[in-house]
Every structure is written in C-alpha cells, then in structure tokens.
Amino acid sequence: MRLRNIANKLRHTPLHPQWLLGRRRVPDGLAELQGTVLDIGAADRWIERHLLAATNYIALDYPNTGRDLYAARPDVFADGANLPFADASINHIVCLEVLEHVRRPDTLLAEVARVLKPGGQLFLSMPFLYPVHDAPHDYQRYTCHGLARSLADAGLTLHSFQAQGSAIRAAGLMLCLAIAGGTTHAPRVLAALLLPLTLLLLVVTNIGIALLAATWPSWSAMTQGHSVRAIKR
Description:
The protein is α/β, with parallel strands linked by helices. 33% of the residues lie in helices and 20% in strands. The protein has a seven-stranded mixed sheet.
C-alpha cells in the first residue's frame, strides 16, 4: 500500500510505471454529440465535461466495480449487459476501458445496438497489451479483428479504428509494469531494498522508450489498446 501511495504522487512523471500511457484520451467527435449520451462505466464522470452543455448525459456503472473499486458517481447503477432503457432511446453511447471487465461482452454490445437510435454512435476503447487488473473482474482482451467481429455480430458498423500507442510504447509500458509489479508484490523488506533501483529503472526505461518511440516506425500488430467508433445503421 505504501508503494502505491508513492506511485500515485508520481503519476504524471517518468517515475510512474504507467507514464507511457499518457493522459486519458477524449475520443474524436465527442464534443460534437447532441441529444442523450449514455456513458457505460462512467467512473468519476470525466467524460461529461467534454460534452456540449445541452447534452443529456447519463452516467451508468456496475455496483461491484464502479462503486467498490472506483467510487463512481453514476446516475444509474446497472449491468451493461442488461441496460434499463427502451429500444432506440439513446442517441450515442460511450464505453471506455470497460469491455474487458464484462462477463458477457457480446451481450453488452447487443444491448448497445438495441438501445441506440438508428444513426447513433458507439465510442468504445479497450486495452490490448495490459496486465490483469481489477481482479477478478478482468475477463478478456480483443484483437482489432475480434472487436470488428463482435461489433458486426451486434449489428454495428465500424466507422473508424485507432491503435492507442505505438508498438515501442506498448513494449516499454509492459516492461515498466513488470518492474513495478515485481517490486510491489515482493516481501516488504525486499520491496524496500528494491525501491531505489525500481525508480531508477522506471525513469531510464520511460524516457528511453519515449525518445525511441518518437523516431522508430510503429507496427500495428502491437499496441497498448484500441479505440473504435461504430454506428447503428
């Protein structure tokens, strides 16, 4: 716990193991949305401040994770795989970094398609290379092809697809997390001894990878995650 408290204070510095993730990404086109926007897995409602003031924003989260892990402040506590909304009643849906935590991800996508109005958009993101987190509520990772398959099966048309982070940054992030994770889960005395070396390795790796990623060609088969925009036709 002490190591995690230290890490939280260093979140936006190269001393943090997730520094290469960067800050939270606002999906392209979000600021243009009108009507009712449903945010599935809303957590602290950060998406709300990036929407038009006239937008009818509805924050939804799941009790076991949203309430117990993230201190979420939703308008509705519900299961994304069983949305409490009428058919074709929502203009747009946001679902960021949530699908990996859903027991029935294809059922959630089918529910999204059900409640979206024709022409409505889904903004979805999901990690690809990232450790198990929020255990035991971490169930899957999808390739870009897996996401495209599941969206099509739900009746949603892929509008745009974007890799989150280059291959080099993805590799560097995994290395930093492996270093920090080993230290965090070591016995207390060993963790204290490893802490100075851990911080040094994190700084060297983060800065070195950031410089390398700025110049090295990327590789689409390896990324930190995927960001998708889909439409209900």
